[in-house]
Amino acid sequence: MKALQYRTIGAPPEVVTVPDPEPGPGQVLLKVTAAGVCHSDIAVMSWPAEAFPYALPLTLGHEGVGTVAALGAGVTGLAEGDAVAVYGPWGCGTCAKCAEGKENYCLRADELGIRPPGLGRPGSMAEYLLVDDPRHLVPLDGLDPVAAVPLTDAGLTPYHAIKRSLAKLVPGSTAVVIGTGGLGHVAIQLLRALTPARVVALDVSEEKLGLARAVGAHEAVLSDARAADAVRALTGGLGAEVVLDFVGAAPTVATAGAVAAVEGDVTLVGIGGGALPVGFGVLPFEVSVTAPYWGSRGELIEVLDLARAGALSVHTETYALDDAPLAYERLHEGKVNGRAVILP
Ligand code: NAD
Ligand code: ZN
Ligand code: ZN
Fold first, then answer.
1. Cα of 109 to ligand 3 centre, how many Å?
2. Per-residue DSSP letters for 319-334?
3. ipTM of the assembly?
4. Domain Enoyl reductase (ER): where (predicted)?
C-alpha cells in the first residue's frame, strides 16, 4: 500500500510503498477514508536527531477515520464496512486513568512503549491503518469522513480544553482564542455551541481572522504587540475569564497571561515552546495556567455527537495521498485556512 512517511530527519515526508498490514489477534484493520494534517507533525519533523523519540521511518497521521476492512481473531462488536473514527491517544486500557477513558493520560503508556498512530506507531496517512483494539474506535454514525476526521484531534483537543473551564464561561464572560487555525477555528465553534461567552479571536493573518468571524467569533483582533491592550479594552479593562492559546509561542503565551482576568484560566494548547511564569503578583490573582494534551475517549464521543447535532462545521481542503507533502508545505507556510485532509 501507499503511505506518507517521515523517513529522514529534516527532510520532507515522502509517499512510499510499504507492505499491507494484517490484523493480529484483537486488532482491527481499517481502510482509511480520511486523515487530518496537524501542525504537531510539523513540530515532530523539526526535532533534531538526538531528541527524536520515535523510530524512523514513521507513517504520519494521528487524525484518522476509515471503514473496517478486516477483524483480527477474537474481535467482536464490529463488522466489515463499519465507518469509524479513531481515538488517537492510546493507553494501556487498564490503569486508573484509562479506566476513566482518559487514555491520553495513561499512567503506563511510556513504560509499555504504547504510542498513538502517527506519533510513534504507523499512522493514518496510508491506505490501511492497523488499530490495536476496537475500544479505540467510535462509530461515525452518518458523519461525513472529511468533515469528521479533524474532530479526532482539532475537535477533541479544544473540546477537552474548554470543558474543564465551562463553569467560568457564564453570561457576560469572555473567552479568547489565540491562533484560529485547525484547532482554533473549531474552538470558536465549540465555545459558541457550549457557552454564552463572548469570543475574541486572535491571529496574525487577516484571512484566518475572516474564518474566525465566519465561524462565530464576536471580535477578531490582529495578534501583535498591541493585542493584549486591545483585548483588555474590549473587556472594560478586566480581561478574559478563559484564554486558549493554540500557538503556545513566547509572544502568544505572554499575550495570554496579559489578557487573563482575576481567577481566569489560561490554557496553553499550542506546543510553540513558550512558558508562562506564575508567582504572587506576576499574574492577576488566582489565575490558573495549564497545558493539556488531547482528550478522553468519552469526550471524543461527545464531540462527534455535537457534530451530528449540526453545531460544528470544520473548514477543510482535501488532497490525494500523492499530494500530502504539498499539504504539509502549505501548512508550514501558514497557507491552510481550516484543516487540510488527506484522502488515501
Ligand atoms: P494551524 O497551523 O492550523 O493553526 C495555527 C494558527 O496560529 C494559524 O492560524 C496561524 O496563523 C496562527 N498563528 C501563528 N502565529 C501566531 C501568533 N503569533 N499569534 C496568533 N496566531 C498565530 O495549527 P493546528 O494544527 O491548529 O495546531 C495548533 C497548535 O496546537 C500547534 O502548536 C500544535 O502542535 C498544537 N497541538 C497541541 C495539541 C495538544 O494536545 N496539546 C493537540 C493538537 C495540536
Ligand atoms: Zn495533532
Ligand atoms: Zn493506562
1. 6
2. EEGGGHHHHHHHHHTT
3. 0.99
4. 10-342
